[in-house]
Specification:
heterodimer; A: alpha+beta; two-stranded antiparallel ribbon; 5 helices; B: alpha/beta; 7-stranded mixed β-sheet; 12 strands; globular
């Protein structure tokens, strides 16, 4: 199962037939495994990874990491507030953290102003939120194991012994 | 011979250039060719190892090392060889060389006298034969084609004469990817002991083996320590080809000879490379495993594709090559490879460069990204079907 998952995480366009060939498993077994991974919510979806910085209108895209300190609620802990936050489509990631703050929110928007406005209007005003700290992302070097700045060139000699 | 040539070594003039040169020249400067002709990993050396080399450069560790190589590295290698039941004293029986290539040269020159015979299991890596012939010996070719590229003890013994000095093996093999089964190795070991000859065992691909095949070194059989010369290095498993780190493990009395040659010709292997190699043995295992799994997946893809194309093939157990039989096309391996480059823009290495017996085969390296492999296989299929490459 792990090998199939590793292959798909690296290239979601591999067909069940190709995966079966590469892992010496039967096509049926591969299909069943993938179906189970999907059913169990381990594979959530198959999506393209986009390097936003390469888009022609890259200036229209900003990303910020927001640190939020909250007062946990009786009964619900952090979960209820977290849900109120992640339902906003601007929120791309949300993590509950140990350490100096509680929730880490990653937000994407068109302009600095739009993001800042969202934080001050929507996040900071939520009941339970004690403080927010906004850090704008200037450049992405690596994310989810993918290096964004590399030039992928094969430097090997064409024919060697 | 003209006057100019009189100024060169007659022996060197007689030595043919490597057969791969021609194919290298055909594709030089062309980026429209997919090359399955390489003999090295498509991964860069794991970062922990590169970073370790940076550190030592920063610290100014840029000197020679002992001729033997760094003692920590030799100790780590001794421990590593122990996993395969090879016991060598890191002080007197392990020497770090400039790749396995230097090790082969140094060992051959330390054991061979003019007129000796050396048995080389073919197909084999391109350097064995010329390096042996430079020692004025008679090369005895052991053709392994009839036995699926596996040298058998019986075939070895048939070729032994009173002049036989050594046997040269490589498992997993470049160019075939095949591994000699342990039971056959045990029998070969008996032949070697009975006739008191050396066996040079090139094990540089031993970490790249698939489907739970176990690596067994011929040096690990009882009583073999006196006859075995184990050659290994970091180029393949650790993706370190450009760093040039190999090693020899052999009995101390032979090592005293090999050591002299290495001392005079190389002094030592590059120090930062030695530190990087050491780091690889300490902490590179997970990265090596990731690469191994990736090669295994690609091997499976290649084997299945060639079988679908109807090209006979012995499934390789290791290394990163497949060596399909193209005789049914009616083309020589050179003609096949030339046509494949010129008309289908895929480079492979014709079998005949790995020994005369390997005519009729091609070596395809699958250490190339999977999208390119698929495209190369598609083009080969077109060639076999006699269809042109679409523009």
């Amino acid at each position: 199962m792990q090998e199939i998952l590793d292959l798909l995480q690296n290239d979601a366009r591999l067909t069940a037939e190709e995966i079966a060939t590469m892992t010496k498993k039967s096509v049926a077994e591969v299909k069943d495994t993938i179906a189970k991974l999907e059913k169990d919510g381990i594979i959530l979806k198959y999506a393209a990874i986009v390097n936003q910085e390469k888009l022609p209108d890259e200036s229209d895209h900003v990303r910020a990491i927001i640190e939020i300190q909250v007062t946990p609620e009786r009964e619900h802990g952090f979960d209820a507030l977290a849900e109120r936050i992640y339902r906003f489509p601007q929120v791309k990631s949300l993590h509950l953290m140990s350490g100096g703050y509680d929730l880490q929110v990653i937000i994407e928007g068109k302009t600095l102003k739009e993001v800042a406005f969202f934080v001050s209007e929507k996040l900071a005003t939520l009941s339970g939120v004690k403080s927010t700290k906004t850090h704008f992302v200037l450049k992405t070097y690596k994310e989810n194991d993918i290096v964004y700045v590399d030039s992928k060139k094969d430097g090997r000699e064409g024919v060697t012994a | 011979m003209n006057e100019r040539q009189d100024r060169f070594s007659a022996k060197m003039l007689k030595t043919p250039p490597s057969g791969i040169r021609k194919f290298f020249d055909l594709i030089i400067g062309r980026d429209d060719i997919i090359s399955l002709g390489v003999g090295e990993p498509d991964f860069a050396t794991p970062w922990v190892m590169r970073e370790e080399a940076y550190y030592h450069l920063e610290q100014g560790h840029t000197s020679y090392t002992s001729n033997w190589g760094l003692s920590e590295l030799r100790e780590a290698i001794a421990e590593y060889l122990g996993r395969y039941d090879l016991r060598y004293d890191p002080k007197k029986e392990i020497l770090i060389t400039v790749g396995v290539s230097e090790a082969v040269d140094a060992v051959l020159r330390s054991i061979l006298n003019p007129g000796d015979e050396i048995i080389v299991a073919e197909p084999c890596y391109v350097s064995y034969q010329p390096l042996a012939e430079l020692c004025d010996v008679k090369l005895v070719r052991l053709d392994t084609v009839p036995t699926g590229f596996i040298p058998t003890a019986e075939a070895v013994e048939r070729l032994i004469t009173p002049k036989t000095k050594a046997l040269m093996l490589c498992s997993p093999s470049n160019p075939t990817g095949r591994m000699i089964p342990a039971a056959e190795l045990a029998k070969i070991a008996e032949v070697v002991k009975r006739h008191k000859i050396w066996v040079l065992s090139d094990e540089v691909y031993c970490e790249l083996r698939y489907d739970d095949h176990k690596h067994v070194s011929i040096g690990s059989f009882p009583g073999m320590k006196d006859y075995a010369i184990v050659l290994n290095g970091f180029s393949k498993a650790f993706a370190m080809t450009g760093w040039r780190i190999g090693y020899v493990a052999c009995p101390a009395d032979l090592m005293a000879q090999v050591h002299k040659l290495h001392q005079y010709s190389s002094i030592c292997a590059p120090i930062m490379s030695q530190y990087a190699a050491l780091e690889g043995l300490k902490s590179g295992a997970d990265e090596v495993e990731k690469m191994r799994v990736s090669y295994q997946q690609r091997r499976n893809l290649m084997v299945s594709a060639f079988r679908e194309m109807g090209l006979p093939l012995n499934e390789p157990e290791g290394a990163f090559y497949v060596f399909p039989d193209i005789r049914k096309t009616g083309l020589s391996s050179e003609a096949f490879a030339t046509k494949l480059i010129n008309e289908y823009k895929v480079a492979v290495v014709p079998g005949n460069v790995f020994g005369a017996g390997s005519e009729g085969f091609i070596r395809c390296c699958y250490a190339t990204e999977i999208g390119k492999l698929r495209e190369a296989l598609r083009r080969m299929r077109l060639m076999l079907e006699g269809k042109p490459l679409d523009a």
